[in-house]
Amino acid sequence: MSQQVVTRFAPSPTGYLHIGGARTALFNWLYARGRGGRFLLRIEDTDRARSSPEATQAILDGMAWLGLDHDGAAVSQFERAARHAEVAQQMLEAGTAYKCFATQDEIQAFRDAAKAEGRSTLYASPWRDAAPETHPDLPYVIRIKAPRDGATVIQDAVQGDVTIRNDQLDDMVLLRSDGTPVYMLAVAVDDHDMCVTHVIRGDDHLNNAARQMLIYRAMGWPLPIYAHIPLIHGPDGKKLSKRHGALGTQEYRQMGYPAAGMRNYLARLGWSHGDDEFFTDAQAQEWFDLGGIGKSAARFDFKKLENICGQHMAAADDAALLHELSDFLRVTGQPALTPAQSELMLEGMYCLKERARTFPELLDKAQFILTSRPISPDEKAAAQLDTVSRGMLRELTPQLQNATWNRESLEELMTQFADARGTKFGKLAGPLRAALAGRSATPSVFDMMLVLGQAETLGRLTDAGQGGD
């Protein structure tokens, strides 16, 4: 029976969930979910000075917004320090690690001399093969015994085989003199103990893999499959930074991008499945594989993001979209929809979600629902309501009182009304938009009338017909 796939996302809680981290989490989630595996979350909170509960919460919130559910409780790396130290002690007993009593001054002196002589400045401890009886009663660190010759080959599922000469690897410290474990040890032990089969992470960790493999080999543990994914760059080809705009998932959430569109776009950022641009979560889980990940950095493109988000909004279930809209209003501190507004939004979602790419755009199109009588038209709309237009609205209103309230009947009635006045319906559309929504850019007049219903439509037209006299 083949081993169950286990992936993990292991962020440091020193700030918000970066968009690059979100993509790493997504890749791990897709890989595990598509294979009936487990997706785990580990919070790498060993840097106590920079880690905060608020940052941990921001990571959890960002993942929840993106719909990236993890299996089991989140693991705190800091809380596992005793286990990390235990592994260092086991390596010490097995002879794959040693006690090093060198002081910082001695290490610095070694490096200065090596630099002056043009030798490698990687520290070579004189304590590596020292007999235990020669050990002084002084503080010490525990170092791994790294191989001195040959090479370490990282068999990477994205980058291919990456060879690092062993003379480039020093006897790294595993346990500091105060007994605390270093990051490299913690990561290797946690990945092993959590039964992680696939380590999918940013290629800035590629060199770490060689060092973590030393620990695996010293302990006789089976290696996970490594997949180091290229970083995300800005549109200018430089590493994504503040100058390119939003960096945290929270910012994208507050800008009103739908989560499904965000997942789709991030999945396509550095991974491809033929020419497919738009796909569902189910398709992404079925298709996602490590072979489809490119070797070069992906470029973040807001236009593409908006295009994909627009397609997802158009394809979304109306009730689900309304639910997500309510969440957007909450996180941006805007008033919640009233039950009556929610009902109308649901009724009108078919015409609101077309060509809307974000929730602010959706709300903008829904202004005719969110506004209430008496409607104050904006400057552009007010210009449509001159004396002639108001007169036409006054004539039209009684005819609408007996109309059958469906699109076909309304279109027919309006066309006949315009024909009788020797004009086209287009001439009527501007004043009707102004009367119904108080603005000049709206969904179609007929959509607004059908969503608002007969009574509200007539009320608004009556108000506009009377105004200004």
TrEMBL record:
Q: Which UniProt keywords apply?
A: Aminoacyl-tRNA synthetase, ATP-binding, Cytoplasm, Ligase, Nucleotide-binding, Protein biosynthesis
Q: Which InterPro entries match?
A: aa-tRNA-synth_I_cd-bd, aa-tRNA-synth_I_codon-bd_sub2, aa-tRNA-synth_I_CS, aa_tRNA-synth_I_cd-bd_sf, Glu-tRNA-ligase_bac/mito, Glu/Gln-tRNA-synth, Glu/Gln-tRNA-synth_Ib_cat-dom, GluQ/Sye
Q: Tell whether Methyltransferase is among the UniProt keywords.
A: no
Q: Where is this motif: 'HIGH' region?
A: 11-21
Q: Where in the cell is it found?
A: Cytoplasm
Pfam families assigned: Anticodon_2 (PF19269), tRNA-synt_1c (PF00749)
Catalysed conversion reaction: tRNA(Glu) + L-glutamate + ATP = L-glutamyl-tRNA(Glu) + AMP + diphosphate
Residues annotated as domain Aminoacyl-tRNA synthetase class I anticodon-binding: 338-464
Biological process GO annotation list? glutamyl-tRNA aminoacylation
Q: Any keyword Cytoplasm?
A: yes
List residues binding ATP. K242
Entry GO CC:
cytosol
Q: Where is this motif: 'KMSKS' region?
A: 239-243
What GO terms are given for molecular function? ATP binding; glutamate-tRNA ligase activity; tRNA binding; zinc ion binding
* EC number(s) recorded for this UniProt protein: 6.1.1.17
**Stretches assigned to the Glutamyl/glutaminyl-tRNA synthetase class Ib catalytic domain:** 4-306
Q: Which domain of life is it from?
A: Bacteria
Question: Subunit info?
Answer: Monomer.
Per the similarity annotation, which family is this? Belongs to the class-I aminoacyl-tRNA synthetase family. Glutamate--tRNA ligase type 1 subfamily.
The UniProt function text for this chain reads: Catalyzes the attachment of glutamate to tRNA(Glu) in a two-step reaction: glutamate is first activated by ATP to form Glu-AMP and then transferred to the acceptor end of tRNA(Glu).
Q: What is this protein called?
A: Glutamate--tRNA ligase
Q: What is the lineage of its organism?
A: Bacteria, Pseudomonadati, Pseudomonadota, Alphaproteobacteria, Rhodobacterales
